[in-house]
Design goal:
116 residues; Hypothetical Protein Ychn, Chain: A; 5-stranded parallel sheet; 4 helices; 5 strands; globular
Length: 116
């Protein structure tokens, strides 16, 4: 069994990349592989509360993030500096996440066999 850390850097609703990454995360977790997710850069916007993508005809991916816990994906991290640089706080996000500082990212990454 390998441990996986998936890094989400892209803003939501900019093509199919987010949906494809979520599919890979769910498939990996479905095969009982330990999966964690780290949100960096514009990826922090993926979990921002009160999104309304339906108004633009886009699929609401926030609902998929809600399902992560059902697949055993409960180690979610967010970089503090990414939040601050975008005027956000952890309380602005729809899910509870563990906060990590930029200087701790390399150490966090080393805890996993695969970083995707």
């Amino acid at each position: 069994m390998k441990t996986f850390l998936f890094v989400m850097r892209q803003a939501p609703y900019q093509g199919v990349m987010l949906q494809e990454m979520l599919d890979v995360i769910l498939i990996t977790a479905a095969f009982d592989q330990p999966v964690s997710v780290l949100f960096l850069d514009d990826g922090v916007f993926q979990l921002k509360k009160h999104q309304q993508p339906d108004a633009s005809g886009l699929k609401n991916t926030l609902a998929i993030f809600d399902a992560l816990e059902l697949y055993g994906v409960d180690e979610l991290y967010v970089e503090v500096e990414s939040l601050l640089e975008r005027g956000l706080q952890a309380t602005d996000l729809a899910l509870p996440l563990k906060t990590v500082h930029r200087k701790e990212i390399a150490q966090l990454s080393r805890q996993f066999e695969r970083v995707c």
